[in-house]
Write a structure and sequence with these properties.
Blueprint: H1 2-20, H2 28-46, H3 61-84, H4 87-95, H5 98-108, H6 115-132, H7 147-169, H8 174-199, H9 210-236, H10 241-264, H11 270-290
Length: 291
């Protein structure tokens, strides 16, 4: 279970770094861009993906390009959600994206519905309502409600999961899809950041800095570490995928809650706390159904 703990820790540390970005004057857009360079390089050297499947007819290039656009866009939304809604609720929204992934599995991939899966789905949807139902005054000082960001995180990560499943169904190995998506995401973000920097030369806005680059490389290492350790956990417990699935998702919810409340003083309403319990129960039921 060490790999699961390391994966969950990396996932929460990504949120922590995004939470601290403004305090340390880090440009999140630049950090997200450099993050994909670090993730791409680490993927190449540590997973050693074979790209031969992408040279075959019918390679899912449209989905890979879509993933390259969705990933950095979702990362920027994630940063905004952490800033406004906090680490606790954002991490829960991210983990509960499995509910929409499960719905997609029923509708698009022919997965069979069972009583446990449906019960987990129902409890999970109640948990989603519990995390987005916040009084307007509880939104962060930047102003505006946090619930649209939370819902975007929830739906966005489910979309990424569905796209990855579609790519896998086309015969593309997981490591290869990550490698190409990370590389394309970096090219796209680098192009946008360069244009933004050139346009802001007179005002100094968008200027590329070493601080932002270093933060981005650290973000990329944590982002890829989350993926790598999760893959290693599945390899170490190959006969118990449901245990890895449940431990990872529940671990992130619990660890994110502890960090958000104890380290950053995030306040949770009674309804939020009930939602956390429902989220954990929903994840457990879905994992048990898949065991």
């Amino acid at each position: 279970m060490l790999y699961v703990l390391l994966a969950a820790t990396c996932s929460v540390l990504v949120a922590v770094l995004l939470k601290l970005a403004r305090r340390h004057e880090i440009d999140v857009a630049q950090a997200v861009g450099w993050n994909y360079l670090a993730a791409s390089v680490l993927c190449w050297f540590l997973l050693q993906p074979s790209l031969s499947s992408l040279q075959q007819p019918g390679a899912p290039w449209l989905s890979l390009l879509g993933l390259a656009v969705v990933l950095p866009t979702l990362f920027l939304v994630l940063a905004a959600s952490v800033r406004r809604a906090g680490i606790v609720l954002t991490d829960i929204a991210q983990r509960l994206s499995l509910l929409l992934s499960l719905l997609a599995a029923f509708l698009l991939f022919g997965e069979t519905a069972s009583l446990l899966k449906l019960a987990g789905l129902g409890l999970g949807l109640l948990a989603v309502l519990g995390i987005v139902w916040r009084p307007q005054r509880s939104a962060a000082s930047e102003g505006g409600a946090a619930w649209p960001l939370l819902l975007t995180v929830w739906a966005g990560f489910a979309l990424v999961d569905v796209m990855l499943k579609h790519i896998a169904a086309a015969g593309t190995p997981f490591a290869a899809s990550l490698q190409v998506s990370f590389a394309l995401a970096f090219v796209g973000m680098a192009s946008w950041l360069l244009i933004r920097a050139l346009r802001g030369q007179k005002t100094g806005q968008g200027r590329l800095t070493l601080r932002n680059g270093a933060a981005g490389l650290l973000l990329g290492a944590l982002n890829f570490g989350n993926i790598l350790f999760y893959v290693q956990a599945h390899r170490a417990l190959a006969s118990q995928p449901a245990v890895v699935f449940a431990s990872m998702n529940i671990g992130v919810v619990v660890l994110g809650t502890l960090v958000g409340v104890l380290a950053f003083g995030e306040r949770l309403s009674r309804l939020n706390r009930v939602a956390i319990g429902l989220a954990i129960l929903a994840i457990g039921l879905i994992a048990l159904a898949r065991a």
